[in-house]
Structures are given as structure tokens and as C-alpha cells.
Amino acid sequence: MSSSNPPVRVAVLGCGTVGSEVVKLLQSSAADLASRVGAPLELVGVAVKDLTEIGPDMGLAADLVTTDALSLATRADVVVELMGGIEPARSAMLAAVASGASVVTANKALLGSHGPELYDAARRAGVEVYYEAAVGGAIPIVRPIRESLAGDTITRILGIVNGTTNYVLDRMTLEGLDFDTVVRQAQELGYAEADPTADIEGYDAASKAAILASLAFHTRISAADVYREGITKITAADVAAARATGHVIKLLAIVERLGSEGVIARVHPALVAENHPLASVHGAFNAIYVHAEAAGELMFYGRGAGGRPTASAVVGDLVTVARHRVAGGRGPGESTYLALPALPAGAAATRFQLRLLVKDQPGVLAGVSRVFAAHGVSIETVRQTAGDGANGVELATLTVVTHKAPERALRRVAAALRAEPTVAAVAGVIRVEGE
Ligand code: HSE
After folding, report:
1. Is the pLDDT of residue 112 over 60?
2. Same structural domain for residues 96 and 203?
3. C-alpha 292 to ligand 1 mean position (Å)
4. Mean pLDDT, the chain, whole residue set
5. Which of 274, 292, 327 is the endpoint of a domain?
6. Is residue 162 domain-resident?
7. CA spacing 20 to 30 A to 123: which of 288, 346, 370, 373?
8. Residue at 160 is within a domain
9. CATH code of the domain in which 118 resides
């Protein structure tokens, strides 16, 4: 095969942080990409929201730039969607597919909510949808799950899939700072968005969890199926208590398969033992830890965001799809043959750490342990530290770590403890994951 094949026409929709880096890579690596594909990649247009987005440094001819994404989407062999959000990205991708183009996208929000609509349309049209950049930015994880591990059975994935929250929790851990201070500094440094809701409330991670669960368990899981808790309630005291028991706090996306019963997908803060590989994922880095029956444990690590790293994954997909156009063949489409039910997070069995502020007097520990026993929750460790003696009553902090227990049992324990006269406060109820 040679690059004398006719060009593969490429349209890029969106020219922000990632889109502009994709265009630059297409320009700077044109000869290598043509050799790898077997045909030149011809940029036929770049769609922007506003024509002023494109500076002269991009070296783009004016007639390549348009604000009409929908029309551009029907004039290419491969459409690279980097606009983000639901509309007009959804309509543009559906228009692309209907016109016979394959799609490469980094749009986790769209795939997490409307993925099946796009996959169905692509299957009907005989075209491809690739989305390596939608989870973990530059990290190869979609293709390893979809292809490399296609001979294995994945049972569980634990992911740090949001760089903003990992950055915030990491600085809280390393510097003992409180949540608000770190978020404010992260915004000043450009690590957090001006409106960080999607990141810190776990919505971004929930979309990625839905994508991972769908791929790993051959089942349609949408972001709405994912239990979600963000990191806004995590305090410096929670972080200090975690450290005291040899843990760090991470926002994890956890997807697991309970045999043929179903799939649980959840996103929440969790204590991770300091010696677990995920505990050493610092700053804005991402990592995805996969348990597979035959392969055992695998960890994929790298930059989960940023223009150039994400562009690497996008252009990788583009090369793959373009190769198929030139040489024939097709990558795997959506696989849903297991069609397992999505189970509520309450069905998951997890270890928990609770911090209890209790009266420091005889019989209190026995009373507390009776509450756990009454709800069938077994205590693994209890650590007592002296309290502050406020209001003339000596108080102590009990840090309790449980053995694995169903989440709903733990909720009943927490409610019963709050009703105990000897318990002044139940704080920092956090799951312990990753053993
Ligand atoms: N906002 C995401 C993060 C990056 O903080 O990781 C893109 O998914």
C-alpha cells in the first residue's frame, strides 16, 4: 500500500484546547501519518463557534474554517468531534454517520448519555465510532478493554479518571490544606475550571465510569446508572484521619460485575491504602486499575487531560479509522451481548471507615460495637484518640474500620449511631477500596 491512495478527508469539529492540538499534529506529522495510514490525511475543514478562535499561528487557510459544523460533518470521510457537550455535537455526529463518515470523539458526556444512539446509527451505516480520548485522555484504555482484553473476563475496574479532583485531593493530602483553599488555588493555576461542578461533583467521572462499564461488561450502562458522590464534603480532618490509618483519599470510579447478577457502577471518594498503586497517582494524573480473570491486575497510567496528550489519543484513533478506510476492515462495534442489569450501589459490599466523636467513659466502646453487631457489620479495627473535653465532657475520637459489609447495612449503622446518647457525632463515613 502506498500514500498514492486517494486522501482520507478529515473534518475537525471544535478548535479549543484539544482541537487546536489535533490540527497541529495533523500538520506537523503529515508525512508520517500518511505513511502509517497508506494515504494522506487531508484536512477539509475546522468548525469553530466563533471565527476569532483561530489565530494566524494555526496556519489554516481561511476557507477551511467554518461556523457550520453540521454541514462540514457531511463533507468528510472521518469526522473528529471535539466540541464537547450534547448539542450540536450529537446532531453533527449523527449527520456525519448518516453521510457515511466514521467518527472519532472525546465527548464522554455525550457517550455516557447518548452513546447507544450513536453506536446504533454507526452500525446501520456501516461506519465506525472511536473514542479513546473520552476516558483517561492520552491513556490507552478503551482499546485495551475493547480489543487487547477481548479474550479475558473483566471483573472490576477502579479508576482515577478525573485529574481536577485528583489534584485537589492530592494537595489536601500532601499539604494538609482544606478543600476550599485548594480549589481556589487550582482555579487560579488553571487546573480547575471557573465552574468546577462537573469535576468536583463527580459528573465527569460518572460519564467515564459508564463508558468503562459498558465496554468491560458488554452491557449498556449510562451515566444515569452510575451512583455519584463528589468530593465537596471531604475535609482536612477526613484526610488526616485517612493518613493516620495508612490511607489516602481518592475520587474513584468503580465498576464491577457481580457474576450474572448485574453491574454496579459508582463514583465516590474512597480510602485507598498507601501501598496500593493508585495511591501513588499524584497531581492531575489519571490511572485505571483493571482486574481481569486471566490477566490478573493491570494498571494504565498517564495524563488524563490537556490539549496535546488528549490529541495523541484522538489522532491515534484517526489513524486507525483512516487505515480501515484505505485497507478495508473494521474495528469492533458496540458489544452488548451480556445485557446485565445495572444494580444500585447499595448492593456493593465495601469496607468503611467512620470517625465517631464519643463520650470518653466506661461502656461506650461496648455500646458502639453492639450497634455494629446488631446490623451484622463486623469491625476490623478501632483506633481511639483523645478528644477535646468540650462542655466539661471528655470526648474521644474513635476511628472504626469495618470488614466488608453491604452499603445499606452501613447506612443503618450510621443512623443508629447518631441516635446513641454516648455518640456526639458521626463524621467522615468513607468507603475503603482497592484491597
Ligand atoms: N475535566 C477533566 C479532568 C478532563 O479534570 O480530568 C477531561 O475529561
Report:
1. yes
2. no
3. 26
4. 95
5. 327
6. yes
7. 288
8. yes
9. 3.40.50.720
Q: Is any ligand 1 atom within 6 A of the Cβ of residue 115?
A: no
Full residue range of the structural domain in which residue 249 is found: 142-303
What are the C-alpha distances in Å from 126 to residues 74, 134, 381?
A: 15, 22, 56
Q: Number of structural domains, the chain?
A: 3
Nearest Cα residue to atom 7 of ligand 1: 305
Query: Which atom of ligand 1 approaches the CA of 198 most closely?
Result: 1
Q: Do 323 and 239 fall within a single domain?
A: no
pLDDT tens digits, 337-376: 999 999 999 888 999 999 999 998 899 999 999 999 999 9
Instruction: Give the active site residue among 49, 108, 208, 250.
Output: 208
Indicate whether 97 pLDDT > 90: yes
Pocket test for ligand 1, best of 166, 199, 212, 282 (most atoms within 8 A of CB): 199
Q: Which atom of ligand 1 is nearest to the CA of 165?
A: 5
Domain of 147: which CATH number?
3.30.360.10
208 is catalytic: yes
pTM for this prediction: 0.95
If asked whether residues 289 and 392 sit together in one domain, one would say no
Q: What is the CATH number of the domain that holds 355?
A: 3.30.70.260
Considering the domain architecture, whether residues 168 and 299 belong to the same structural domain is answered as yes
Quick: pLDDT tens for 20-66: 999 999 999 999 999 999 999 999 999 999 988 887 788 899 999 99
Same domain flag for 253 and 214: yes
Instruction: Give yes or no: residues 162 and 287 share one domain.
Output: yes
Do 126 and 153 lie in one domain? The reply is no
Q: Are 375 and 365 in contact (CB under 8 A)?
A: no
First to last CA, the chain: 49
